[in-house]
User: Fold this.
Amino acid sequence: MAPPTTIRSRDQALAPLMALDSQASCQLKELVQWECQFKGADYVCSPFKRLFEHCVEHGKPATNYEVTDTYTNS
Assistant:
């Protein structure tokens, strides 16, 4: 099971990213989860994307910020 990740709004997620010094580096990461429903004798599964900023600052542990928004899966 994946470790817990803090869920924040886009504005909350971008604020700490803007404050990071030049030694920090961030990468956009994507995770696809599947939502499945049982219909009759079959399962119907739909993908659901989640986006994260994975930031590494020198001398500190990496931090993941979820930046998935309403339009990511539309």
Q: What stands out?
A: The chain has a mean pLDDT of 81. The first strand starts at residue 25 and ends at 39.
